[in-house]
Amino acid sequence: MTFTDVLDSTDLLAIRSKLTEITPDRVASAINKDQADFSDFLALLSPAAQDYLEPMARQAHAISLRRFGRVILMYAPIYLSNECSNACVYCGFKATRDIPRISLNMEEILAEADQLKRWGFGHALLVSGEAPKVLPVARLAEILQALQPDFPSLSLEVYPLSGPGYAQMAEAGADGLTLYQETYDRNVYAKMHPRGKKKDFNWRLDAVERAGQVGMRRLGIGSLLGLNDWRAEAIALALHADYLMKKYWRTQVSISFPRLRNIPENFSIPSLVSDVEMVQMMLALRIFLHDAGIVVSTREPAELRDQLIPLGVTQMSAGSRTEPGGYIHPERRGEQFAVVDERSPAEVARAIQKAGYEPVWKDWDRLMHEGYSHEDHSQWNAQGSGS
Ligand code: SF4
What we know:
This protein is α/β, with parallel strands linked by helices and 387 residues long.
């Protein structure tokens, strides 16, 4: 059984429609439970919970402190290629757009990585469109091997691979996979992904499990907020994360909240998600899933990101460029999505410290498994103050 079976046997719309029946009393009783269950989560997601965001924020903060302390893991993407055979209607890289297509060579990738290293990052996310011809599995493995000595943690956000493909990635040094389903609604998914391999909903959804099966230590999931009703997406995300956390219990499961902001021509966002709605979704998920990581990217404005820190965020990107070669060619345009928080990594780190948290620039687990010492930790954090 996979999560696809779980999703197909769940009537999301029926669950969603019952949220309006939830009363304020039910919300109040869900907030302060030691461990909220799925029915409590639904109460926290309901329209009635909109009046309870402050107590929900207090509870989410307390849970996050207990589970994660005052630590935020910093990461940055490296865009390897903007070539893509898909045509996701909301994306700046879609195949039908006439933009310069760039795939970095190894020298350029290492130069991009070098910039991240100089800023202090030890955790990089390798990103590309669906371009197996320019970025086949063997090439991805080569890139991982080249970066591994300098990056204690390397995650992938590339097209879905087969199980053996993920095994090869893990062998080459990848320890994490980020793969957003974009939407868990099959009808909406079909409209948004009209062409290419990405049309295959199940292949994408099952990919996260294929990575879990080969022992990837981090799995990142998310819905692209704006494509569909946010409450329906939150219900599916909660089920998906809960399922993954139970089945791959050694793996850190994180939820991202990518929100559609800029869009290509001829596309309007079907279900805009407000700041308050996104915050409610985040709080409800934190109170339900105490151990899930929460990721907020530079798609969101600086002020909002700073306010979200104490509510349960565990990972933040900083200094991101979302076009291939954007760090070494800052003048380059043609990004996948607009970066809204344009602060430097050092500025983001200072904002995190100002909020009373510690920005952490590298992932500890791989080094701890390999027997690195506490001194290595201190040394890296000193380096990570950024420039
Ligand atoms: S979202 Fe990903 S798969 Fe879809 S067009 Fe953009 S780069 Fe390609």
